Amino acid sequence: MQFGCIYYFCRMKIQKITYRLDNAGMTASTLCAIHCAAVPLLITVLPLWGLEFLAAGWVELMMIGIALLIGSLSLGMSFMHHKKILPLLILLLGFSMIAAGHLPVLKVSEAIVVPAGGLTIAAAHLINWRFTRCTVHKH
Length: 139
Hints:
By secondary structure, this protein is an all-alpha fold. It has helices at residues 2-42, 46-49, 57-82, 86-101, 110-135.
């Protein structure tokens, strides 16, 4: 009986951590998608607002890195409990879209493919959040 309570407590704690990571991941991925879609349109007015740094390559790399770190942690920890690979595959698809959008061949469609990749990553977090929420109630 004691082991069951400890196990349930640990599961609840991991659910709380992954819930927060999924929320952060959805937020970061959505902001990344907005950034990638808006910067090409606003690149001429960003210096007027003092926000020219948003068009710098390091900002985009930092956003991708944060999304990768949060996604790997959240979905990796959650996978150990719900054992569903779908969120991981969708996360991989999202990062593949972002990588493909940065290829010289697809430069024309970068403004479409990269934001779509960010939204795909946000969808992976949403699906993962739902799977994690559902598995906690199973005993």
